[in-house]
Design goal:
The chain contains 14 helices and no strands. By secondary structure, it is an all-alpha fold. It is globular and about 65 Å long.
Length: 296
């Protein structure tokens, strides 16, 4: 990006990569810059919509997907993302229509087959199942797409009560996912995790909390629901969200994003949590974070 700060392809691809690495907040300004260069770039429109979704701003991405499809009615990534968004919003029938439109354009479209199999009420036909199986036999299929095919077939065979086949495909899909995490440096590293826990224990002592500057926020409006997986946090959120003045925002990645951004905001060379020591400096006490417009 430093070599070509105004290159459309560089901005679009870098934004896409940051989103894939779970840094949508960093991707959004790059993709917005790409669209300033070319407002009709369907790839940038689609990628920005995906980044906005991952940043919990999915509604803002819908017009971008519709615009991309208007510009190129055969651009299947945008059609698939719009279908997925509709299904997530409870518009399953409308999303299914879009997925069938993709398969009419390309019967071997893997994301469409996957979404249709795993997220809609429509069952894959025998021809579609055979097509999905045949795609697995092709060596040129990427590991990521191979993973989707296995998950799709696992769902199909589970619905058909062919449980052994379903389990075999689920196992293959998860092996692929684990290998993909390893390739991209996102796999679980026991030693690295232990080092992070030890660093947290060392840094976040009672004395450290007492010496750190406060946020300055005196408002009790935000409600944080924290807990280990399967500990009932979703149930607590649903109970709270049943109140008319409370909105349940789901599982947010804001804290992870703050941890990612904090070293840059503090001018620290150490990553989180080591950069926290910089907060002891008085000139850093004014660091604030955007709440994204959320109230409660």
């Amino acid at each position: 990006q430093r070599l070509a700060p105004n290159d459309l392809a560089t901005l679009t691809n870098l934004g896409d990569m940051l989103t894939l690495l779970d840094h949508p907040h960093a991707a959004i300004p790059l993709l917005e810059a790409a669209l300033k260069i070319d407002p009709n770039c369907v790839e940038a429109l689609n990628n920005l919509a995906v980044a906005l979704k991952d940043a919990n701003r999915a509604a803002e991405g819908l017009p971008l997907l519709e615009r991309a499809i208007q510009l190129n009615p055969q651009y299947t990534p945008a059609i698939n993302n719009l279908a997925t968004a509709q299904i997530s919003n409870g518009q399953v029938a409308e999303g299914t229509v879009l997925l069938d439109k993709i398969l009419a354009l390309n019967p071997r479209d893997i994301p469409a087959l996957y979404t249709l199999a795993t997220s809609t009420k429509r069952k894959l036909t025998d021809d579609e199942v055979q097509r999905t199986q045949s795609l697995l036999e092709q060596s040129e299929i990427s590991p990521e797409y191979r993973e989707l095919l296995h998950f799709a077939l696992s769902t199909v065979f589970d619905k058909r009560e062919s449980h052994t086949l379903a389990f075999d495909h689920a196992e293959a899909a998860n092996r692929s996912k684990k290998a993909n995490y390893r390739r991209t440096g996102q796999d679980f590293d026991r030693r690295q995790h232990l080092e992070l826990v030890e660093a947290n224990l060392k840094l976040f002592t009672r004395e450290a909390f007492a010496s750190l500057p406060t946020s300055g926020l005196q408002d009790e409006t935000p409600i944080f629901v924290l807990g280990m997986p399967r500990s009932g946090t979703t149930l607590v959120e649903q109970i709270l969200a049943s109140h008319p003045q409370v909105f349940g925002a789901g599982e947010l990645n804001d804290m992870a994003q703050i941890a990612f951004d904090l070293p840059g905001l503090l001018g620290a060379s150490a990553s989180f949590p080591g950069c926290i020591e910089k907060l002891h400096q008085p000139e850093r006490a004014s660091v604030r974070f955007d709440g994204g417009g959320n109230v409660r």
